[in-house]
Amino acid sequence: MPLFLLTTVTMIAFAANSVLNRLALAGGSIDAASFGVIRLVAGAVMLAGLCLALRGRIELRGPGRIAGVLALLVYIYGFSGAYNALDAGIGALILFGVVQITMFAGGVWMREAMPPRRWIGALVAFAGLVWLLWPGAGPVISPLHGLLMALAGVGWGLYSLAGRLNRDALQATAANFVLAAPVGVLLMLLWPTGQSGAEIGRDGILLAIASGALTSGVGYAMWYSILPRIGASVAAVAQLTVPVIAMAGGMIFLAEALDLQFVMATVLVLGGVAISVLPLGRANRDR
């Protein structure tokens, strides 16, 4: 599959995670901890099956494995907890805004070459995020849930950076999920579902399975296959398209309102993405 098409499909899968998670929690059919662990287990089962079918084995060792597993857990539980209150689009914008910061910092740490236009684009995109989150300037956002999503963003940024160290995307993603799933089960046992007031219903379980097996398991395997082929800063900026897709999904499936402030912030984000990633004449030679 061409790189552009593969990246597009992966970004849609990421946005679908936001919609599925919010749909399950907003409907009261499951709590955040249970959604997270079912998502992990479903992803582990799907990826383990794919590894056995396509590779004949599952390799749990590999570069950056511990970092990948820990980052995945931080992301999964921060993400699920945040969507107890955040709309799908706003949550995705916070998530991938923080991802951008984390991965740009990683790119600088790894001394990745970054042309000036990539810095400019990143600053424009980040300005859109700041505008959205500035007190009194946009929609009211719960500080606790905003912080949880920010932690999820750090986790996903580190998870993506760890993915650049792996040659076999499917094996690496499967290993991360298989190793993280038992820890997730333990965390759920330590986090009683009764505290959330939500019952674990069929709809919530099905949405968590879909998120884990398809949009997470398969989606993350595709992402790990992309990461070694692009720079950390390009990967960071490209992911800022996800909030727009998530916003559309939230409007269609969750009847979320379209806020003018969010639209303008999204325009800035997409403008930054265009400046940073799209070839602009001779500028693409500097990439």
Describe this structure in words.
It contains eleven helices and no strands. The protein has helices at residues 3-26, 32-54, 65-82, 88-109, 116-133, 143-163, 169-190, 202-226, 232-238, 242-254, 260-277. Helix 3 (65-82) packs across helix 7 (169-190). It is globular, with a radius of gyration of 18 Å.
Summarize the structure.
By secondary structure, the chain is mainly alpha-helical.
Helix/strand-derived category reads mainly alpha
Determine the fraction of residues in helical runs and give it as a percent range.
Answer: over 70%
- Note the overall shape: globular
Low-confidence stretches: 281-287
Number of strands: 0
Overall average pLDDT: 82
Distance between the termini: 22 Å
Largest sheet: none
**Whole-angstrom Rg:** 18 Å
Q: How many helices in DSSP terms? A: 11
Order of helices and strands: HHHHHHHHHHH
Beta-strand content bin: under 5%
Observed structural traits:
mainly alpha; globular; 287 residues; 11 helices
How do the helices and strands line up, and which of them pair or pack?
Elements: H1 3-26, H2 32-54, H3 65-82, H4 88-109, H5 116-133, H6 143-163, H7 169-190, H8 202-226, H9 232-238, H10 242-254, H11 260-277
Helix pairs in contact: 1-4, 1-8, 1-10, 2-3, 2-7, 2-8, 3-6, 3-7, 4-5, 4-6, 4-9, 4-10, 5-11, 7-8
